[in-house]
Design a protein that fits this description.
CATH superfamily: 5'-nuclease
Shape: globular
Strand content: 5-15%
Radius of gyration: 14 Å
Number of helices: 5
Strand order of the largest sheet: 2-1-3-4
CATH topology: Rossmann fold
Structural class: alpha/beta
Distance between the termini: 15 Å
Amino acid sequence: MTLVDTNLLIYATFVDTPEHERAHAWLVSRLAEGDGTTLSSRRAARNAGRSHAAIAAELTETSGLRSDDVPDVEIAALAIEHGLVLASHDHGFRRFSGLRVLDPPTPDADMG
């Protein structure tokens, strides 16, 4: 299953972005497959389980984090806790150990 970062929704919506075609096509195909793709949102964050706080605390030890990285820590912890792949064009997520990342707008998208 996949957790979709908000940036992909933005790219899929706004046709003037260079990432639009690939993000839109990827999102439409994933939603059509019905594979359990989940959109990242405050609602998804309510699915934090018992290990969420511990995972998030461990991720905060990642080198180079700033205060504006707190939402990324929460999203990464949620994905790790639930065994989800995070689909995002934000390359900053790749720094989190244990997080599987997919970058659909990149031609050679792969999981990290």
